[in-house]
Amino acid sequence: MSKKKLLVMNLAVMIGLGSSFAIPSAKAETESVSDERTKIQADIGQADQNAQRIQAEIQKLSEQKQRVAQAIEDNNNKINQTQSDIKAANKIISETNTEIKELETAIQNRTEILKQRAISYQHSGGNVEYIDVLLGSSSFSDFVNRAIAVGKIVEADRTMMEQQEADQNVLEEKKAAKLQSLAKLNELNTELKGMQEHLNGQKVKNDALAADLKNEKTANEAAIRSLKQKEADLAAQEALKKQLASAASQGQASQTAAVEQTKASAKTVASAEKSSTESKQTTSSPKSSPAKETVAATPVNPSGSVNDLIRAGYKYFGNSVYVFGGGRSASDIANGRFDCSGFVIWAFSTVGVQLSGNTDSLKNAGTQVSTSSMRPGDLVFFDTYKRDGHVGIYVGGGKFIGSQSSTGVAIANMSSGYWGEKFNGRVVRVNF
């Protein structure tokens, strides 16, 4: 065998051995990349689940914001109506003030006339009775004239006195009505301030929740984009290493061409992955919102216990909204629209106890008890925008359940914090 042929065979053996040694190394690197891809894909799956959770919370908040928006609209309508009533009451008071002034002027004038009449009946510091006037006549005709005059004076005086008394009664009635109207106006103004406080509480809370969810959604979307880009890069690396391993097994001559082809394939894969990612992100948002859910009304249980009373409101947690005057209709109850007294009245109705009115009337719905002896089921009152402006149902452990402006129906702490400061010590026990 010639030296030339021997050299060729040795070179072939070396190339073959070099390829055989390169294959395990490429295979190990490929498996490492594959494992890393698997981990990243699991992270993407977790991020996708997180995205679904965030979207569900956004949807729930959207429904809650719709409830709040409707509540704000209803409350604004009540505010507008109240302001209209205030203007009408002010007009009536203005008219009443004019009438009072006219009556006072008439009474004063009539009083002056009666005073002059009384003076005319006085003589030399003494009183002269009507009979003295008649007996002082100089003739019969003078007597008749005097009698007619006295009769007219007596009748005029009587009529004037009766009118005086009637006007004074009317004056007192108008003054009383004026005071009542002023008291009503003060109450309306107080309620307006309370409604504004409720509206602000609802708006602040929902705006804060919306901002938090928006930030969380943005951060999660950025994480998903980063993970998918990294996964696409690893996919390209994995494809490249597989091609390299294949090229090594086929010989050094074809390896260079395979590498170039693999690089082109890798670029194509990365580009396709990127396009797929952008397409999914573009179409990930829901095109429509599901229909708004309502809460079914709770059936009445006449033999219900205190626990039944308290648990009745649990279904409204996170699914209700504060509406001034709410909870008095089937529609409000089905959609979780309550004010504080409306919720209390509804809750008691579920155990067969009929209450009515507002916080002022609920103060007299049962027996007043001390704070040291209060127990679950008792009504507790708070000074918010007015004395006894808020009411809830004590559940024990220093907490109460009620419809609050910032949360809707929820359990709140009354032993400290805001409600701890507002609790005024009034506790009413309703027997059932």
Description:
The protein has 432 residues and is of the alpha+beta class. It folds into 2 domains: 3-272, Helix Hairpins (Orthogonal Bundle); 306-429, Alpha-Beta Complex (endopeptidase fold (from Nostoc punctiforme)). Helices cover 69% and strands 9% of the residues. The strands form 3 sheets. The chain has a 6-stranded antiparallel beta sheet with strand order 5-10-6-7-8-9. A two-stranded antiparallel ribbon has the order 1-2. A hairpin with a 7-residue loop joins strand 6 and strand 7. The radius of gyration is 45 Å and the shape is elongated.
Q: What would the keywords be for this entry?
A:
2 domains, 10 strands, two-stranded antiparallel sheet, 6-stranded antiparallel beta sheet, disordered N terminus, 9 helices, alpha+beta, Helix Hairpins, single chain, endopeptidase fold (from Nostoc punctiforme), 432 residues
Tell me the layout of helices and strands.
Elements: H1 3-120, E1 122-123, E2 126-127, H2 130-135, H3 140-250, H4 252-282, H5 306-311, E3 321-322, H6 330-334, E4 337-338, H7 340-349, H8 359-362, E5 367-369, E6 379-382, E7 390-396, E8 399-404, E9 408-413, H9 417-422, E10 423-429
Parallel strand pairs: 3-4
Antiparallel strand pairs: 1-2, 5-10, 6-7, 6-10, 7-8, 8-9
Helix pairs in contact: 1-3, 3-4
